[in-house]
Amino acid sequence: MLEDHAGIDSEALERTIKPIAYIEQAAAVAGREQGKLARSDNDYHRVIARGREYRGTDYVEATYRRTQLRSRFVELFRRVNVLVTPTVAVTRSQPATLGVDEIEGRSVDRHLGWSPFSCRSSGGSAAATIPCGFDQQGLPVGMQIIAPWLEESRIFRVAAAFEAARPWRERWPVFAAG
After folding, report:
1. Is position 75 within any domain?
2. pTM score
3. DSSP per residue over 89-133, as a string?
4. Which of 106, 113, 156, 177 has the most CB atoms in a 10 Å sphere around its CB?
5. Long-range Cβ contacts of 95-98 (<8 Å, 24+ apart)
6. How many domains does the chain have?
7. For the segment 111-152, what is each residue's pLDDT rounded down to a tens digit?
């Protein structure tokens, strides 16, 4: 696991990413008319409500932890050229929801818990996602390639090599009728 080898805090989602994301979402809609916001789904309303509950000090502390997270990624990229992870932890969620509540029997945050890999890469590193296969239901699975800041060329080289070895452009997911 990344946490075991890179010193990345396994609580980064709860203590760093979530406060920043929720507060910023609440701030983004602060001036909107309530009528327009009322058309949003209940999951989004909960995110906004939670974002409003955080204090300014929570945001400042989370941004400090994000800076520490970025430093850990800088250190990690001194040892490795790129990181390759799944893009997200699930291939689908229920329509009109922000995500899922559970992955393999473990409760996760509906807003961000389904994307622990992409949340962790938000330490300022460059990242891209490419298709890498299909799940048992025929839905596409993504592979995320993460490189150090300003080293996007590494991502392009890895992506091009993978796509040359496993071309997916001729294969499409099966969509249910209706």
Report:
1. yes
2. 0.73
3. S-S---TTSSS-SEETTEE--TTTTT-HHHHHTTTT-EEEEEEEE
4. 113
5. 96/41, 97/41, 97/43, 98/41, 98/43, 98/44, 98/47
6. 1
7. 666 666 766 555 678 889 988 888 888 888 889 999 988 899
